[in-house]
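Comment thread on ticket #2218

A.B. wrote:
> Attaching the input chain for the structure job we discussed in standup.
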Amino acid sequence: MKTIESEIEEKIDELLACLETDVRHMQESLSYLNELRGLVIKRDDVALGRLLESIRTRSGSFAGHERKRQSKRKELANMLGCKLEQITLSELATRVPQGARERVSAMQAKLRSLAEELKKEHMSTSMLLSECARFNGLLLRSVFDLGRTGAVYYNSNGATKRHVDTALMNLEL
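C.D. wrote:
> Ran it. Output below, let me know if you need it in another format.
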């Protein structure tokens, strides 16, 4: 009986080590989002290109880690006699000995906190990029559609005047 418990604790330790890698990945993602927003605001295209290439490279290497974590979950599911879908940190905390339960609960709290922070930072970045796209669209429309809008302008006498020329600037006073 003791050997089964020690094997389960060993597998839990392996899973927690995988989850620590997930924690580091989430922290890197938070850092990338912060850096991405800063570079977009600064309009540093060269650094932005390097950052995006770095992100692309790292995301490809993370797939192997994902398979490893799923493998550890499957091993734990087999040892505990349940389905893979049932092996969540919440469920695991109810099925393991007290010492491991505290470590699993601590990891769950850490992951939950990071996931909330990542969600917030992702939303902030999405909103910034959305506003940049909206602003760029407005700017392009105003530059290219100026003469075709049929906009009405008022002079100092209150008389209306339609501008139909395609000049980028109106220098009339």
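A.B. wrote:
> Thanks. Noting for the ticket: Residues 6 and 153 are 82 Å apart (CA to CA).
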